[in-house]
Design a protein that fits this description.
By secondary structure, the protein is α+β, with helices and mostly antiparallel strands. It is built from 3 helices and 9 strands. Helix content is about 25%, strand content about 35%.
């Protein structure tokens, strides 16, 4: 585990847990965004991730137990293999939906969410977890019909606990701690 930032115990933190992407994947997605997503607010390279669980506002004093849950789940995850298979738009975002080869990312998301629920710091969403990269944001969906970038199957580099700060210019993310993805 590494720590890229420090926080005080009495602070409230807007937290999420996510898989981080290898540089080669970030390079390809960034190139695709610049070629395909003209006229929309592109999600910058440093903000691309695959969310495992969004916790919202939590006391900083809970961070260690939250990271512990992520570390324990990630250590059991096995090799996660993802590949972008389609582009999808919602009312507010454009995303690349990922195929989860072997279902290991879904197992990790389920495991970490269950651990967080047991800690009393998280409640699952009503819809099933969908592995994806949010690549653009907007006020009105542009109705684009795009092919995903030519990214081959990739293995996430690690998982991290992120601090999310909302700014007028958009969200700013800071990696608080990273954990290795293990194998059984």
């Amino acid at each position: 585990m590494t720590s890229a930032a420090s926080v005080r115990g009495d602070e409230r933190l807007r937290l999420f847990l996510a898989l981080r992407l290898p540089d080669a994947v970030l390079d390809e997605v960034e190139r695709w965004e610049s070629e395909q997503l003209d006229g929309v607010r592109i999600v910058r390279r440093e903000l691309l991730h695959v969310t495992l669980a969004f916790l919202g506002q939590r006391p900083a004093s809970e961070l260690e137990s939250i990271v512990g849950a992520l570390r324990d789940a990630a250590g059991r995850a096995g090799e996660i293999r993802l590949v972008p298979v389609r582009y999808r738009e919602t009312r507010t975002v454009g995303m690349l939906v990922l195929e989860d080869e072997g279902g290991r990312a879904a197992l990790l998301a389920d495991d970490v969410q269950e651990r967080l629920e047991r800690l009393g710091v998280y409640r699952r969403e009503g819809r099933p977890w969908l592995p994806h990269l949010t690549v653009a944001r907007w006020r009105k969906a542009p109705g684009l019909r795009l092919e995903p970038p030519p990214v081959r199957t990739f293995v996430p580099s690690d998982a991290a606990a992120y601090l999310s700060r909302l700014r007028p210019s958009g969200a700013q993310y800071e990696v608080l701690q990273t954990v290795a993805l293990g194998g059984e």
